[in-house]
TrEMBL record:
Gene3D superfamilies: 3.40.50.2020. The chain crosses the membrane at residues 30-51. It comes from Vibrio ezurae NBRC 102218. It catalyses: GMP + diphosphate = guanine + 5-phospho-alpha-D-ribose 1-diphosphate; IMP + diphosphate = hypoxanthine + 5-phospho-alpha-D-ribose 1-diphosphate. Signal peptide: none annotated. Keywords: Glycosyltransferase, Membrane, Transferase, Transmembrane, Transmembrane helix. The keyword Isomerase does not apply. PANTHER family: HYPOXANTHINE PHOSPHORIBOSYLTRANSFERASE, HYPOXANTHINE-GUANINE PHOSPHORIBOSYLTRANSFERASE. SUPFAM superfamilies: PRTase-like (SSF53271). This is Hypoxanthine-guanine phosphoribosyltransferase.
Length: 172
């Protein structure tokens, strides 16, 4: 994609698929059944790739907590319609990335306060170094070396570039 905002390549399509396979292998070794709870819209691409590699029984639902990339103080409303019951289930929150971790921490807290789950964990393609600690297991393929803003594979800038099939640094 030729765009002045898409900079240096961070993860190629091949590297992304290798990361997806790594996370799937880890989850396949741990679970026999789970509810996959996608964080939308960013987690859609990673979820679609991941669930096709899972070998255990899954149910799927979605949750939303809109935010601006790089916003560490996200206070937007959490929207969850609970199409699938989370009570006494293994729940895996799936998102494309954990950047600051503020939004994910809010989602984890919300779920823990409102549902009695058998287990709760997070699956994401990559994490950034400046993220907050989470009180649940995290499964990820890549630890980034900087907190640079990234675009592609679900990550937007100004609500664009989610459909870029690789991950690149943002050029403002």
């Amino acid at each position: 994609m030729n765009c002045p905002h898409i900079g240096e390549l961070v993860l190629s399509e091949t590297q992304i698929q290798q990361g997806v396979a790594q996370i799937a292998d880890e989850l396949n070794a741990l679970f026999t059944h789970a509810v996959v709870l996608t964080v939308v819209p960013g987690g859609i691409f990673f979820t679609a790739d991941l669930v096709r590699k899972l070998k255990f029984d899954i149910k799927m639902d979605y949750i939303s907590c809109p935010h601006t990339p790089g916003d560490t103080q996200n206070q937007s409303e959490i929207v969850f319609h609970e199409n699938i019951s989370l009570q006494h289930q293994n729940v895996i929150i799936v998102d494309d990335a954990i950047e600051s971790g503020g939004t994910m921490k809010r989602l984890v807290s919300y779920l823990q306060q409102n549902y009695q789950m058998q287990s709760l964990s997070i699956a994401t393609l990559f994490v950034k170094p400046g993220r907050v600690d989470m009180a649940v297991p995290e499964y990820y393929a890549y630890a980034m070396d900087s907190d640079d803003l990234l675009v592609g594979y679900g990550l937007p800038w100004e609500d664009k570039f989610r459909n870029v099939p690789y991950l690149s640094r943002l050029v403002k």
